[in-house]
């Protein structure tokens, strides 16, 4: 079983616009130099890439960049989630007046998780206005994937820094936080030291963009291979690229099996 646990795509009508905005932001940041999309951002291209890599399923993470987009982003999430080979996590924006109702609506529709992107939503992870959202997500029992580390949309301030992650973790022990990017895109030293092994699963998205293999192995083993999911962050890398990176790591076959699909299959209810 192979599952790409961290992907994004956009409705056809807005994919080109979204890709131009994100590519422009990345190009303006020397930190993210070398980050170039490997897909066009459409659902169709994503699915073709996922299956070309031999993967069975993918998880599409919906990012609500502004409160006014919340409903439409989640309508698209429902459309993707209805596909036989896909799951889509919903998005929620902490500044939307109806964020709690929207979470209930997504839960009732069968959505299996939530995505938060503090840097693109411009709200600190530990901002108190997020607390009612965390309370509800904890009660619903849904996992919540959060962006970690550097982001070109907020190059000077990390809205999900390790200290904020640890504060939210301490304040919401029932909240099932999943740390994207092995705990911190381009901030992997802090992730390794402060976040790995603290009981929060991680995905491997964007490890392809500069994480040395030896450090990837150290972070994965400190966190436990049973707590790591394969992720590409498509359109920024293809599933094949992410899988190739994982398979080349000096891990055991069993560790790779867990990471490339078994852990995600359990979380998604595809396996006992
Ligand atoms: Zn992502």
Automatic annotation (TrEMBL):
Alphabetical list of InterPro entries matching this protein: ACMSD, Amidohydro-rel, Metal_Hydrolase
CC annotations in GO: cytoplasm
Signal peptide start and end residues: none
Ranges of residues in domain Amidohydrolase-related: 3-270
Keyword terms, alphabetized: Lyase
Biological process according to GO: secondary metabolic process
Cited SUPFAM superfamilies: Metallo-dependent hydrolases (SSF51556)
Molecular function terms, GO-annotated: carboxy-lyase activity; hydrolase activity
PANTHER family (alphabetical): 2-AMINO-3-CARBOXYLMUCONATE-6-SEMIALDEHYDE DECARBOXYLASE, ISO-OROTATE DECARBOXYLASE (EUROFUNG)
Protein name according to UniProt: Amidohydrolase family protein
Lineage: Bacteria, Bacillati, Bacillota, Clostridia, Eubacteriales
């Amino acid at each position: 079983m192979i599952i790409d646990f961290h992907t994004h795509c956009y409705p056809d009508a807005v994919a080109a616009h979204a890709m131009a905005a994100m590519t422009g932001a990345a190009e303006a940041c020397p930190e993210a130099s070398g980050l170039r999309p490997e897909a066009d951002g459409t659902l169709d291209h994503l699915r073709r890439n996922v299956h070309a890599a031999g993967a069975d399923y993918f998880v599409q993470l919906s990012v609500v960049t502004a409160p006014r987009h919340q409903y439409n982003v989640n309508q698209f999430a429902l459309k993707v989630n209805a596909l036989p080979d896909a799951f889509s996590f919903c998005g929620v924006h902490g500044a939307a007046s109806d964020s709690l109702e929207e979470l209930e609506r997504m839960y009732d529709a069968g959505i299996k998780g939530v995505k938060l992107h503090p840097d693109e939503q411009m709200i600190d992870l530990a901002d108190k206005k997020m607390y009612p959202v965390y309370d509800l997500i904890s009660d619903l029992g849904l996992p919540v994937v959060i962006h970690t580390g550097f982001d070109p949309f907020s190059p000077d301030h990390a809205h999900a820094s390790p200290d904020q992650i640890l504060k939210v973790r301490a304040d919401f022990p029932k909240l099932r936080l999943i740390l994207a990017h092995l705990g911190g895109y381009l901030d992997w030293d802090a992730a390794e030291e402060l976040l790995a092994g603290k009981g929060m699963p991680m995905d491997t998205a964007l490890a392809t963009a500069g994480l040395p293999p030896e450090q990837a192995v150290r972070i994965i083993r400190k966190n436990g291979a049973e707590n790591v999911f394969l992720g590409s962050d498509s359109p920024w890398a293809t599933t094949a690229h992410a899988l190739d990176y994982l398979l080349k790591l000096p891990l055991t076959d069993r560790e790779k099996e867990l990471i490339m699909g078994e852990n995600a299959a359990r979380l998604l209810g595809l396996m006992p």
